[in-house]
## 1
Amino acid sequence: MATLTKNEIKITTCETSKINSIDFSNLAFGQVFSDHMLTCDFKDGKWQSPEIVPYGPLTLEPSAKIFHYGQSIFEGMKAYKDANDNVFLFRPMDNIKRLNISAKRLAIPELPEAYFMEGLKALLDLDKDWIPTAEGSSLYIRPFIFASGEGFHASPANAYKFIIATAPSGAYFSGKVKVLIEEKYSRSANGGVGFAKAGGNYAGQFYPTQLAKDKGYQQVIWTDDTSHEYIEEAGAMNVFVRINDTLLTSPVSDRILDGITRKSILELAEAEGIKTEVRKVKVSELVEAAKNGSLKEMFGAGTAAVISPISGFGFRGEDFEIPEQDNSFGLQLKERIVAIQTNKTEDPYGWRMKV
Amino acid sequence: MATLTKNEIKITTCETSKINSIDFSNLAFGQVFSDHMLTCDFKDGKWQSPEIVPYGPLTLEPSAKIFHYGQSIFEGMKAYKDANDNVFLFRPMDNIKRLNISAKRLAIPELPEAYFMEGLKALLDLDKDWIPTAEGSSLYIRPFIFASGEGFHASPANAYKFIIATAPSGAYFSGKVKVLIEEKYSRSANGGVGFAKAGGNYAGQFYPTQLAKDKGYQQVIWTDDTSHEYIEEAGAMNVFVRINDTLLTSPVSDRILDGITRKSILELAEAEGIKTEVRKVKVSELVEAAKNGSLKEMFGAGTAAVISPISGFGFRGEDFEIPEQDNSFGLQLKERIVAIQTNKTEDPYGWRMKV
Ligand SMILES: Cc1ncc(COP(=O)(O)O)c(C=O)c1O
Ligand SMILES: Cc1ncc(COP(=O)(O)O)c(C=O)c1O
């Protein structure tokens, strides 16, 4: 695959920075965008050289396939700044690898890893002042690829756009969430695209999530689409359950995204002496555990929220509360992972990358 | 819901028509576009008035949700012109109704029917010279809605664009196709969005279809994602099977699109004295019928190709040919439906709409 160094990337800077117009003490998630973005076009059978340009509108033909056939994939990552203004990423090579796994499944040409990594480094160099430092905040990074090629024929496009945009962001969720175990709607099929970060997976979640919200829940726990007997993900996060002192999470599959937070948590938990089990978790087991008091915790895990504690779940019209724990695994593991991400502690795993 | 008449639609015409640059005797499918398009924005909580503007590029922010979360739906229809330059649509009310069924599932605000129908009529009035008349050709009509609202939060957008673009088109497929019965990849989940014309459904089909093409097939026959025992659709078409003199097709479900061609064929077949059965069709039944000679025909049915005959199928490494029939139901029904669509015969069903 093509190589490239950071210095080879053509940069066009914006005339005036928007940074002074942003209230960094009051950031929502992914609502304001940094001054620049990386863009890279696939055309004539290959990915062209990436460039950095001012963040701004895209122009597309109405027949661009993104509008018709949902050919799009994305990643989600974060950049952190420590007290000395050093900038860090967390396991970024896993994001580019997963982007290319998604690309293959969505019939999108794979991107040279160097275009992604060197492009991202150059972008962060330029926009490093946009990385917020307040606790819980970070620069959210959104790499994405979509079909820009034209035509109404339902077949892969011949042109694509890869973009990295960044957004200084506060916390994704505030506080604990109540979830609904979903038995009618599903997120993904066996042999489908659930393991890929494909745009279409998310649009399909909105309506069932809205129905859950109307009932007073904030998120949906997805179950397998065949039997609805097993819990699979929590909204757009992997899901963990603590029964007594064992932390359980479902194995990844073609329906479940191989989350970077999830696998980091599994490793950290082991190191912290927390027993983990990767196995399918039945809804009935969860209900049983909630009833007999052995269900101690439940949380979602993903880049945006890191760990998102769940205060209770609804199932078939009944609500089950999960009582507060003094020694919360979720809190403990979140502290560990955030400390590594933000360079507040040693990183024996080599996960943190200084850029 | 909002009302509107054709004459209330604001029209901005293009300065010079492109029509003379188009070779109408040699049209591909959905590759060239007529002079104008209808556009309509959803913002501030409602669909604004539709307008007709010159067909041309759209401008969107990089954070528009269409690029990230696949929130998009579409329809496919055709306009035909008869010898007296009268213009006809085929069951267009079913398209607007289905568009709104898709909208609901994808958490997209439903569109007032009048905006669709009156907008389309006004557009066809203006661009009627773009409707080709050669046999097998038509003006392909592509209504679509996508999320233009901004933000990286995985939730429904607050702004959408509805567009109708049209493309003078030749036949979608040429000749018979060989199909592969797919047992690994799936198109849709139980409780998923397969019944909706959601963009993401199509992107997910591209890679498995490419694998089938690499093996010498042109299309995939999708099976249910749970057992892979039942045939469900043929690529982006409904699928029909003729065993002896009975025409079979699967019932629609939340995994299978409720095709307008499919239901028209079922009605026409009855009227032609062809026995039909709407029931699940097992792959094993198909293989058995192919072996004992009772499998007489197989075809896909959809707006783009109308009826697309299948010459044989592959299953688990074995190829099964379907011999040519003298009295082909597929051909007979295609003739009937096209005759109605193009005003060459009476339309006892009220399916044809003169615009
Ligand atoms: C469906 C889904 N599951 C899980 C995750 C968590 O993955 P990661 O920890 O890599 O962010 C994500 C992305 O955030 C996701 O979209
Ligand atoms: C998945 C799928 N199935 C079936 C059909 C056929 O539907 P219709 O006959 O309404 O065009 C389509 C659309 O053409 C489709 O996209």
Note: The mean pLDDT of chain B is 96.
## 2
Amino acid sequence: MRASVLSDWLAQRLDRGSGQPVYRQLHRLLQQAILTRELPAGSKVPSSRLLASELGIARNTVTQVYEQLALEGYVTSATGRGTFVADTSPDEIVGSADAPALLAPLGAVDASALPAPISAPVRALQQALPTSQAKALQQAQQPATRALSQRGSRLIAGAGVSKRQWGAFMPGVPDVTRFPARVWSRLHNKYWRRLRPDLLTYAPGGGLSLLRHALADYLRTSRSVRCTPEQIIITTGIHQSVDLAVRLLSDPGDVIWTEDPCYWGVRSVMHVSGLKSRPIAVDDEGINPSPDDLAHPPKLILVTPSHQYPLGMVMSLARRRMLLEYARQNQCWIIEDDYDSEYRYGSRPLASLQGLDTAGQVIYVGSFGKTLFPGLRIGYLVVPEALAESFATASAELYREGQLLQQAMLAEFIAEGHFTSHIRKMRTLYGQRRTTLLDAAAQRYGDALPAVGGDAGLHLVMQLPDGTDDRAVAAAALERNIVVRPLSGYYAEPSRAQSGLLIGYACVPDEEIAPAFNTLADAIDSTLPLFA
Amino acid sequence: MRASVLSDWLAQRLDRGSGQPVYRQLHRLLQQAILTRELPAGSKVPSSRLLASELGIARNTVTQVYEQLALEGYVTSATGRGTFVADTSPDEIVGSADAPALLAPLGAVDASALPAPISAPVRALQQALPTSQAKALQQAQQPATRALSQRGSRLIAGAGVSKRQWGAFMPGVPDVTRFPARVWSRLHNKYWRRLRPDLLTYAPGGGLSLLRHALADYLRTSRSVRCTPEQIIITTGIHQSVDLAVRLLSDPGDVIWTEDPCYWGVRSVMHVSGLKSRPIAVDDEGINPSPDDLAHPPKLILVTPSHQYPLGMVMSLARRRMLLEYARQNQCWIIEDDYDSEYRYGSRPLASLQGLDTAGQVIYVGSFGKTLFPGLRIGYLVVPEALAESFATASAELYREGQLLQQAMLAEFIAEGHFTSHIRKMRTLYGQRRTTLLDAAAQRYGDALPAVGGDAGLHLVMQLPDGTDDRAVAAAALERNIVVRPLSGYYAEPSRAQSGLLIGYACVPDEEIAPAFNTLADAIDSTLPLFA
């Protein structure tokens, strides 16, 4: 290896005007020369003094680059003898001799004609390997296309997530602009003023004790949930809560009853963990299993008793007790998703199913996404006493969460009364918006397109005439920049699917509701000539 | 139902000094009386006027309670006739007549002798149900114990998560007290001053575009990762990154190669998703598959090339190229966990494996947990172009993340140069602490207990003599309030397990290192009489 050839080659490629440090450029160029074998294995590189002087750069830079290359395995140093290009490609591990390009002197071979670093050494590798190993390498000489897994493909094919997450009439999104930002910032600054290391590291299993205590009080009082702080597991929201419950309480192939229709996101979480869902019809009293359903007890039952999602009915007491009794006899777990029970207009929020459970079989799931703001990512599970320790351990083991400082802020936010007062204010606000929306709908359509499920929550469902293609209506609305979700998309069983639109009013400013509804109505009319 | 009997019963139980609102107390008491059948189904409740006057409370309170009970299904109203206790228990759905307790008048039956609300109606329910349904209910007359699922039990049994997350010598935890809190608070206040709804709602698939751009720049420059911003998927850390990759790229029963030893947390994430891991030995050059290993190509290969976890060696260039070539031929995916590559002492950080990949087969995984603070919960995947859209969709569908405001803060933190400058400072600091620790060890033990893997990262491994029970040493240390992790616990294959201790020095203040080490040494000596 003549130092001057290498120097010339490097000098041509070093670009001092590029703004990239010379160190980094030199390092990359040498790596590249070694990977493409322009600098063949075993060849000696010029001394740092010589190269530095020929390139007109600091010797220290060259020394550092050599050290880095040595560390990375590109070169090796032999004390007193100098620095040599290392044997880096697999075939060279055993010194295969039939690779002429490897020994070609720098400059004699056009770099673009050299084999790519990855594709070259297969044959040599095979010769070098024991028979079994060589056979393994032969198996796939014609690489098949890499693809998603089966569960991955199903997940993508069934994905229901929307590209838009804000604006009229995005369902399930609260008005985050009303969040008491000043209080929150005050709490933030308080906790960041004197750093507490224990709040910046990983979370203990189950989350911050302070928050678990505050939540236990709140849930006992407001939701009739019976629990100790130890039974509360802090999560990042309903997705993680359901993921944890599903993995701890069921095995692949187990069956879960889901309400039909139900929330798409949770369906994806269950399916990717290997659960088979059996969609159960709902009626005015909530989930309504048929005799055939009852004859096939599932492992898990997922319900939304306070406010069926997305239709909005309340599960009757008789149905609740039937469900609890059935679960007790058949050793099923019930997951109660109490997702937006805080917003009930014209009456107080309804008590939870968990509060009726005396058999330790209900897993209660809630979150702050709808009461504070979705981006906060704090939710919780309330699990039966017997499961509390396992859930706490598993949550730390699987998710390794943190965000304790935020949990501390939230605990104080609740303890200071800001949480309940915010809910009260929002309930009034959303109640008004709901009325505004219903008025706009009545004005345009009279009784022709009835709304259901609007007694609670952040959205209502506008029914469309049977057989209407609600997906087409939603698409027409989106063209007009209005987000609504087609009701039929929430059904698992096509024969049950009703046509309708989920209309979220909570995040739409009062004065925009009527205009936005009229735009939506134009989209409806354009799709349903009936109303044109 | 005589109103006065009910009034007396209620009056005895209402506690005006308890601080609980009368509304809530009355609501609960009536619920309880109905559930325990002290107020039998079909009985008429006194008018709100009468009950209010007998209890000496506001009539409005009673009216509201009745309305709430009606909504919850405990009572029903018949216009002009009054309010009646509803049929709430499953057997009453069809009016079974053989349940005498149901009709017992209030006060005639000792409440404690009444059947619990849940356990009563089994027989009646069976009579009422169609045969198939009744059979289903019979199946489990003797309830078995509800238990964790098989995967759940395995997860708990194998859990490696530590109860303590802070203090000397917790491995893998940076010194969070040095985090530039003032800069962070300034960014926080800037973003909270004018609320941006789009930053408070759910995250779009893949995360905030601003952060993905900032990260792409950083990873290109500092880690030689080749990617566009679209190839970057923001996650909450390595656990979620690996979870997502495993679910999208493998199916239950697929095999993953893991280094032996390796990080326990990721092992749990893989196993709970049904992967079988094949532990592959490591040597001085990193992962070292045997011919038998090579003959059984896995679906996934998980490696830590920059700094093997927990042993700390660097994967050689030859090994890297062999791995890439093998994966290409056998259509395996490689997951590169680059978990603390930023901290390398005495030389620059090493280039990533991803940067050598020309076949689109490497999934690169990193996080800010070690560079900023663990509780932040921001990590990232860099996926091959062909997978970018699927990963973005699946992350939104499965996890429904948020925290966009925090992501915006981080993007600005990086763009303003705070990130790289913080890393530089910490590298110097940790380098000093490492030296202090090595000095303390040398002073106490000379060369007797050599340390390995200390060239990079936040911990080193102190080797113990073969056959030492390192778990006992760790337990003895914990009794002295020192956290170390036994090296043998990281091995999957017991025959390979070496004895040693993971000692994390990064989060220990300089002046505490030597004293803490001496305490640890006392624990070692107490367990190894050899050194006593």
Note: Chain B touches chain A through 143 residues (CB under 8 Å).
